[in-house]
Fold:
Amino acid sequence: MPIGKLVRLLQEMGVLNVSGATGLSSAVARHGVNLMVLLEFAARLHGDTPALIDEEGTVSYSELHRRSEGTAMRLQEEFGIGCGQKVAFLCRNRTSLVTALFAASRLGADVYLLNPDMGHTQLALLLERHRFDLLIHDQDSERLADLLPNPKPAAVPIMVCMPASDRFPARRPWKRMAAGRLVLLTGGTTGLPKAVPHQPSLFNYIDPYLSLLKTMELARRSNVLIATPLCHGYGLAILLSFAALGKTIVLSCESGTEQLSALIRTHSVEVVTVVPVIAERLLAHEKDNLRSLRCIASGGAPLHPKLARDINAALGPVLFNLYGTSETGLACMATPQELAIAPGAVGRKVAGGRLKLVDPSGNEVRTGETGQICMSSSWSMAGRKSKWIETGDMGYLDEHGLLHVYGRVDDMIVSGGENVHPSELETLLRTHPLIRDTAVVGVPDAEFGQRLCAVIDPLSDTLTTAAVTAWLTDRAARYQMPKTIIFRQIPYTSLGKPDKKRLRQEMDCNFEICPNNYETETVFR
Structure:
């Protein structure tokens, strides 16, 4: 690692001084290179600063450090956790999860973050595949853990891992250990996710961390509300970024609009992490509660241009759009100024990363042409043989050099020989004044192979199929005209993405192939 990057990082963090350099070197010497280095570094420099706030109260950095060391001691002594073992977490955003996460990393264990909204069958398959040594769950996931078949790993409530307050060690003499991996699981609540391992070292992530610090001016912000799941790399990255700065982190285990809005107002939150659907609901609920926000970090799902414009009109230039995957980590970022030019864009690649867009043959496409997005960086998932990662997302670079994401490769619909990207019709429909939300999927068609089905969540019961069709006639290409229109609420996954798999399954059960014509039919829920 070039020493110049480390100097720039410490300078951007505001700790380029004797205390900062000493604190960092001392933490590395004591723990090795793992997540506990961040926590001890923050505890040394910001000991009395509130670290975490959740529904159970507030914990300072000094207290969080003591609790994490005590938890590490208990995991080691009572559960035999050490280097190379697998510890899985099935927990929502709580202080206890963060505490145990630091502890397991300190012991050199491989840490797996599971989606607490997954189903019983999916969890059983993951246990069979990965053979975890310990499954730690919270009260929300207790029933799911109890239903697991035997034989199964030791499954314990997270509070069992927490030591009593009188057992918090003042300072335990730890042996340096090799860093374990931090393993994210791709996918939502259905299907079998793919494991994506990363090395949890700040030094591996200096480039994207510097980009976050400089572009979003994080060092100037006092706190953050993480409204996205920590089991997803996006929320976890923001948590670790703010922990390294010694800032206050507000955690919410629920994504309800009223609760999040109240937390922003109560704590005068300056930064919030959201998926677009949460940002949209917060803005519609009570925008006066959002006046303290200086940075809305949106990611995890496509940002619709209309929402970007609405946020700018209501709150000013506070919206940032982040793009990355579990495999690539943070890859691109759009600033408020770039979103003013191209609402919905995901911006430019992060310094130190590489980006290219390729056609099905692997050849790079030109500016303005659509291709699959491929990324390469030093902080991509560990253990890859290929330098380039195919993200599975389709996109294009505009004349300003800004990346736009169309959607997934497997979402593309081939209709009558035309490649149709559902996001094009979704973006268009969202500009209709009486449409709140929409998702477009493919349905079988005897003549064309597939045709588009537009699922629409209307703002008014007066909206009709005929009105939507007439409105689209002069705006959409012929091959983009939907064959079927459904009026219903859009289902979302726990990660804030439209649940198109669920929509397709419902259609497979309820729809027959309709006559081939350009008249749409209306289906009401």
Observations:
- Residues 511-525 have pLDDT under 50 and may be disordered.
- Residues 61-200 form a domain with the Rossmann fold fold (CATH 3.40.50.980).
